[in-house]
Specification:
- This is Acriflavin resistance protein.
- GO terms for molecular function: xenobiotic transmembrane transporter activity.
- Pfam families: ACR_tran.
- Keywords: Membrane, Transmembrane, Transmembrane helix.
- With 492 residues, the chain is α+β, with helices and mostly antiparallel strands.
- The protein has three domains: 172 residues, Multidrug efflux transporter AcrB transmembrane fold (Up-down Bundle); 86 residues, Alpha-Beta Plaits, CATH 3.30.70.1430; 184 residues, 2-Layer Sandwich (Multidrug efflux transporter AcrB TolC docking domain, DN and DC subdomains), CATH 3.30.2090.
- It contains 16 helices and 15 strands.
- Strands 5, 6, 13, 14 and 15 form a five-stranded antiparallel β-sheet that branches. A four-stranded antiparallel β-sheet has the order 2-3-1-4, with helices on one face.
- Helix 1 packs across helix 14 and helix 10 packs across helix 11.
- The protein is elongated.
Length: 492
């Protein structure tokens, strides 16, 4: 009796973990159920986006300086900012841009730098500057982020630019009223501009100069802080909002006021008209005026839901005669096509494996190899959120890459088990012996493939962050497929 027990223990020791799992069908089925249930649940909850989301290593400092020339912006804003951030650790490069009325400084951080700490250090450095001109507005310091556009919709037709822009703004307002859509930008149309044309004759008539008129207009059309009022509930900040927007408002600005109450307004000495800035070109499609609306996704919004909501609104939007709409770019459609390609290839691969293994081996073995592929992909899906990986164009490309690899280990194990059964072994003995016989080649095959993809996880810069989901998906799916081939497949 003891001799039989010793032989059984020795046999169990030789069979190892593979033998234990093959003989313990409850543990195997429970493991498979966890992988399938967890993966299916994750499929509905995992973040879905067109391209992977990652943080940019840039900090932007923007300062408005109304009425200042680019040279004044450079001297009064850009140089003090550059000097202030010079001592902040983790800065790789500083690029400044001066333009009429504002300046912007883009600060690139060294890869691996703690973004929030660098942001706070830069913000504090900007707040310590005491040499800014008095006329500037509050500096804005922000971490740069990527815009994630989903779909671009264009309106075009034989109407004037003014009408086309109004149509675009009206459609933009309706789009933003939908709770699914949170960011829409108008493009390919010039900004509104009010033109003020004064003849030298009128200036001489009222003894004025262009500089005096410009100063009056600027003072009469600006938003300025007006102090604060202390109340029992706290401090209330006051601001005088006098900014003008249209020609009629500018035209009523008093230029000369007399004691008798007779005022000379801007429209009395100048021609004030609404128009557009002269940018040299307008958006056109087929020689017709054109306006573009770019719709973006924010946070964890689904591109497919945004696309559906946007197209439904546009289709019901009342356009005047002669105006039509078109879809210029649809990232959601690209996402859907890639998802469809992945699904079709996955199903095709499973069917081909089932047919070939059934023809050359046996149906039962073919079925479990096919199910093993399914478990590998669905089970791997469960682990992706733990690594911060979403379903996007890059991660789906990773699924396509690993699709042709993941089936190899299961086929190798299955074919070897079949060979042992042909030699007369029982199903259990053949499963254990066949799996142990090829376990090391299968392990080394998977591990070497994983090692080949590991360096891609550590690519530096934005390129590395962009492509990181590809090796992550390949490594996770291969690891789960190895687990399935060695510990789940033999039991079945």
């Amino acid at each position: 009796m003891e001799e039989n027990e010793d032989k059984q223990k020795e046999k169990t020791r030789k069979e190892g973990v593979i033998g234990y799992m093959a003989r313990n069908s409850i543990a195997v089925n429970l493991l498979m159920l966890v992988l399938l249930a967890g993966g299916i649940f994750t499929m509905f909850k995992i973040q879905k986006e067109v391209f992977p989301e990652f943080q940019l290593d840039f900090v932007e400092v923007s300062v408005a300086y109304p009425g200042a020339s680019p040279a004044e912006v450079e001297q009064g804003i850009l140089q003090p900012v550059e000097e202030a951030v010079r001592g902040v650790q983790g800065i790789k490069e500083v690029v400044s841009e001066a333009q009429e009325g504002s300046g912007q400084v883009t600060i690139e951080l060294v890869a691996g730098t703690e973004r929030m700490k660098a942001f706070q250090d830069i913000d504090q450095a900007i707040n310590r500057i005491r040499t800014f001109p008095d006329d500037i507005e509050q500096p804005e310091v922000a971490l740069q982020s990527r815009q994630r556009d989903v779909i671009q919709i264009g309106l075009y037709g034989k109407v004037d630019v003014w009408t086309m822009r109004q149509l675009g703004e009206r459609l933009r307002t309706i789009l933003l009223s939908d709770p699914t859509i949170t960011q829409v930008e108008l493009g390919n149309v010039p900004e509104y501009e009010t033109r003020i044309e004064i003849t030298s004759k009128n200036l001489q008539k009222y003894n004025l100069t262009l500089g005096q008129v410009a100063d009056i207009i600027q003072q009469s059309s600006s938003d300025v802080p007006a102090g604060a009022v202390q109340t029992q509930s706290g401090e209330i900040l006051l601001r005088m909002q006098e900014r003008k927007q249209f020609a009629e408002e500018f035209g009523n600005i008093p230029i000369i006021s007399s004691e008798s109450g007779a005022n000379v307004r801007l429209k009395d000495i100048a021609e004030v008209t609404d128009g557009f800035e002269e940018i040299g070109f307008y958006g056109q499609f087929n020689q017709q005026n054109y306006v573009e609306l770019r719709i973006f996704r924010i946070g964890d919004q689904s591109p497919l839901e945004i696309e559906e909501a946007a197209l439904a609104i546009v289709e019901n939007f009342q356009l005047p005669p002669g105006v039509k709409y078109r879809t210029d770019s649809n990232r959601a459609s690209d996402y859907r096509e890639r998802l469809s390609l992945l699904t079709e290839n996955g199903v095709l691969a499973i069917v081909i494996v089932l047919i070939i293994l059934t023809l050359f081996l046996e149906y039962r073995l073919a079925f479990w190899v096919m199910l093993g592929m399914t478990v590998s992909f669905i089970g791997g899906m469960m682990l992706l959120p733990l690594l911060g990986i979403s379903i996007n164009m890059i991660s789906m490309f990773g699924f396509l890459v690993v699709l042709g690899i993941v089936v190899d280990d299961a086929i190798v194990v299955g074919e070897n088990v079949y060979e042992y059964r042909q030699k007369g072994m029982s199903a259990m003995e053949a499963a254990i012996a066949g799996t142990k016989d090829v376990s090391f080649p299968v392990i080394f095959s998977i591990v070497t493939t994983i090692i080949a993809f590991v360096p891609l996880l550590f690519m530096p810069g934005e390129t590395g962050k962009f492509w990181q989901p590809l090796p992550a998906v390949v490594i996770v799916i291969l690891a789960v497929s190895l687990l399935e081939a060695l510990f789940i497949l033999p039991s079945h």
